[in-house]
Amino acid sequence: MTTTTDASVDDAGTTRRDRGLDVVGLLARLFLGGVLVYAGAVKIPRPLTSERAVQAYEIFPMELAGWIGLALPYLEVVLGVLLILGLFTRVSAALSTLLMLAFIIGISQAWARGLTIDCGCFGGGGQIGAEETKYPQEIARDASFALAGAWLWWRPRSLASLDRVLFGQ
Amino acid sequence: MAKKSSAPASNARQAKIQAAQKQQGGGANKIVVATVVLVVAIIAVVAGVIWVEQSKQDEITGGGNALPPGVSELGAGFPAFADVTPNEGAPTLDLYEDFQCPACASFEALLGPTIEELATAGDIRLVYHVKNFLDDNLRNDSSTRAGNAAFCAADAGKFQEYHDQLYAQQPATEGDGFSNETLTSIATSVGISGDALTTWEGCLKAGRYTDYVNSVEEASFQDGVRGTPTVRINGEEIELAAIQTPDLLKQAVEVATK
């Protein structure tokens, strides 16, 4: 029983569509949230590997890149948990989307500059052989995550979210 | 939704009232929830960092800070075949390896004998840089322990033999690590026995060269070594593709000989 001032709410067809879109929102939340929690959880117990994965991109000064490598896994887990719970969905989704775009830019510049690195997206990372690089796949994968994030940014409403329980949205 | 029949005007008003109620008292306060989330997140992060640091320290217990024979400072490589006098103009060959790295084992199987041949003949000054970054990635301490074991063997004059056996007996699955039994059986198989074996065992247990191995890891990374194995001849990195056969390696050494 949702209370909304939307005049079209009385139209049964639209309500069904809304519900369908809410399910899409839930799936997007679980997909992106699950990916983020997994990506962070793999990296947290491997701090040195995570530091070096960021340093391998050769974007930031070594020391700064090291700190980013230490902090990033925690940021991923926090955003992932918020998305799974559906808490502050719009803000979490916006930050996650920007994060994914940043990853895509990072991978693209490594590719363009001729670096041969593993993206270190789910652990690992660092320099690899030239024939072992998977830049197109890595970018496509991150783009799919960004797409899920963009959907929730645009339409944060979803099924079974804490936002709805706590704030009635 | 049951009051469909009521007048549109009153329906809209009621909706407005309900919406207003929700914003005021019905739902939770967003700022309060956000604060709670933030506090929980910060506590989780701090606890996580402390836990990671703690487990890192637990892994390296009783680490010593001894330098292997022939090494004058932390971070520097280990000069192999110290008893060989290099020929005039012989280039320095720096080899960066991690005992748990499968690519290093393949490299050793292919080129190890040639490298040792060149070093024995005095055609190169061979320097090993024993790294341990795979410990972090594989969540074990085998690279550090194997490094310790090899330098403890160096105290008994058996570094090269021990080094070769570590690669020959590298676990088939990356991440399985070296058991203490394997490390000890290698020690006896390369001819460390009696008092020397007791010393070797004490050295390994004390982690006598842990600081040294950590320092080589750090120094080589600072020096631009981004993977293993890395080969440098007179400080210049050699593409592995350019030394795919023993003959190509010999040629590369010859070119670098002054």
Low-confidence spans of chain A: pLDDT under 50, at least 5 residues? none
CATH class of the domain at 78-256 in chain B: Alpha Beta
Trace the largest sheet of chain B across and list its strands: 1-3-2-4-5
CATH homologous superfamily placement of the domain at 78-256 in chain B = Glutaredoxin
Query: What's the overall average pLDDT of chain B, rounded?
Result: 88
Largest sheet properties of chain B: 5 strands, mixed
Low-confidence stretches of chain B: 1-7
Q: How many helices of chain A in DSSP terms?
A: 6
Shape, per Cα inertia axes of chain A: elongated
In a nutshell, what does this entry contain?
The complex is a heterodimer of chains A (about 170) and B (about 260). Chain A has helices at about 10-45, 45-55, 60-85, 90-110, 135-155, 160-165; strands spanning about 115-120, 125.
Produce the secondary structure layout.
The complex is a heterodimer of chains A (169) and B (258).
Chain A: H1 12-43, H2 47-55, H3 62-85, H4 89-112, E1 117-118, E2 126-127, H5 135-154, H6 162-167
Antiparallel strand pairs in A: 1-2
Chain B: H1 8-26, H2 30-59, E1 78-79, E2 92-98, H3 102-120, E3 125-131, H4 134-138, H5 142-155, H6 159-168, H7 180-189, H8 194-206, H9 210-222, E4 230-233, E5 236-238, H10 246-256
Helix pairs in contact in B: 5-6, 5-8
Descriptive overview:
Chain A is 68% helix and 2% strand. Chain A contains six helices and two strands, in the order H-H-H-H-E-E-H-H. The relative contact order of chain A is 0.17. The mean pLDDT of chain A is 91. With 258 residues, chain B is of the alpha+beta class. Chain B has a domain of 179 residues: Glutaredoxin, CATH 3.40.30.10. In chain B, strand 4 and strand 5 form a beta hairpin. The N and C termini of chain B lie far apart (92 Å). The chains are: A mainly alpha (169), B alpha+beta (258). Chains A and B meet through helix 2, helix 3 and strand 2 of A and helix 1 and helix 2 of B.
